[in-house]
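Bump. Still looking for ATP-grasp domain-containing protein structure tokens.
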Amino acid sequence: MTMPEQSLPRIGMLYLDHVLRFFDKSNFKGWPDKIEQVVYHWGNDKQRFIDEVKRKKINVLIGNVPATAYETFREIARALPEVRFIPTLDSQFCNKSKENVTHFCHKYQLPIPKTKIFYQVEEALAYINDTQYPKIVKRSYGPSNYGGYFVHKIDSAEEAVRLFSEKRYYPAYIQDFVPMKADIRVMLVGHQPVCAFWRRPPEGEWLTNTSQGGSMDYQNVPEEVLELAVRASKAANAEYWACDIAVSTDDEYTILECATAFAAFPYIRDWIGQYLMWLLAPQRFDKPYFAHKNWEELGKIDSSLLRTMRHISFGQASHSTDTGEYAPADEQYSLLETRHVRGEEWPSEAWNFQDMHRLSGVNPYNRNEHGAVGNGQTQTQINQPDSFLDTGIEDHQEVTVADHHSLPGAVSESKLEVQPEPDAGHLPEPEQLVAFFQSVKGIGNVLSQEIVDTLGVSGVLYALEHEPQQLTAFRNLKQKKLEAILRCWEDHELVC
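Sorry for the wait, here they are.
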């Protein structure tokens, strides 16, 4: 008597209007059942989308979510607890913003350039006027550098203030400048590197983006770089992943970017499809095999052909043991099964800093000759975080607060309310807050400094007064320590 075959999960392709599609059905070659499509139309479309997923009885939704829809899809995923999102919203945490990449790398002790993130303008200005240059300023929000156009090298405080006055980036995301001879992009499937290449800047320049004149080659990627990318992929529990890793002039390696959203040739999307089919139905599909450092040979093919090549596969070499020798061990980077974890590692209530620290009013970087904000005649609104808009428009840098209501479908679906800002004239100094945390039993110097550096003064005060659970997101700070912090806070004289 033959055993009946296990039924396959019903797959749905997650698409969004105005967003390029990473996958299509052809990437899942050989999947025998119908693959559904579900399209999110932005604006007030959340409930309709949820209803469609339920009506089509979809078990697995596959696809990346753009930064502008990330918080909305956090809510959608919670409303569909029985649906498996691939990648998970936790795996896509780094897709939303560069500040999220920083939080991710800090949590898992992955090397990154020294980074400061400021949600309060006065704190940013104080740092700008007191730090050493050069520095790198990036637009934090959004998954990519858009060819390097939102990455700026600044050489003085005056240049920094002018940049923020013009660009109005929020939050202020400032990194130490790392002299680089190149950077390396590594793409991974199932924590196994499947493609890696160098990007080298033109002579005398510092940006490595090919759109800015940088060059590419696939040869001799250091093993240390591959190992760092694997560590990041495993930390994110990502089915597929990419890292941009800087190679300094001293041959030190730091992560610049990492995400599940990245540009990939069609054959790599096929490989991800093969992997996901095996992951979802190992009883029906064989585990795929990807030859180590295949990119060194494939990279010799003209890129115009690589953009069209599909369904590339590799045969796995067998080793003779006729003379009694042992077969060699598995390759260094094995294709691994990513675990499906329920629950949230990066809940928005703790980590959606942009919505929790909204700014409004005139552009605070514009100062008159007396140091006051504005000039009394024209007042430019500060740029609000793009996450307030659920329109499908990834880049609206010049949108002002007044413009929000005029955009078609511009409805924010975040349930976080705007909280009043503390009176800046009565804010404690950062050192006072660090000393407060150090006074709590079980909170050491390093953790105290990390909390204040990450959240800033106003962010710490907001967390203590309104969202204390946010503090449990920090490493080694669990419920008992949180309760001790709150008891000390109630008795402490340090109040705003």
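Residues 143-147, 372-425 have pLDDT under 50 and may be disordered.

Edit: fixed formatting.
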